[in-house]
Write a structure and sequence with these properties.
Elements: H1 16-19, E1 37-41, E2 47-54, H2 60-64, H3 69-72, E3 79-83, E4 95-100, H4 103-110
Length: about 110
């Protein structure tokens, strides 16, 4: 989940534990990478992830964060990924890179006859 998506206007004390997300990224709109393969490396070796689908916020968000949190997180509630490699993620800075672009996005950019 992108740190910039945290609903701080609803509850300034919200953190990753309340969001029920395992990884919080800063400066990366991870929701835009659905269908892509990405790599995170926090110093323990790269971890390759297939970004599968959006993580839909549930009504529980309104209970633990505050009224309106579920609505505020629609379309930016993070993603569900499948790990494609072993690796270790540590708290702190990490590098992020795209390993493979989404086929559908490549076709939209290049056109069907490229």
């Amino acid at each position: 989940m992108a740190a910039e998506s945290l609903p701080l206007d609803i509850n300034p004390d919200v953190d990753l534990r309340q969001m029920r997300r395992n990884i919080l990224l800063r400066g990366i709109d991870i929701d835009a990478y659905i269908g892509w393969t990405v790599e995170l490396d926090s110093g323990g070796g790269p971890l390759i992830l297939a970004v599968n689908r959006a993580a839909r916020p549930c009504a529980w968000m309104d209970t633990v964060i505050g009224a309106g949190a579920q609505r505020a997180l629609r379309g930016k509630g993070g993603v569900r990924c499948t790990p494609l490699s072993d690796g270790v993620l540590r708290v702190g800075r990490a590098s992020f890179c795209v390993v493979e672009q989404s086929i559908s996005r490549v076709n939209k950019v290049a056109g069907p006859y490229s």
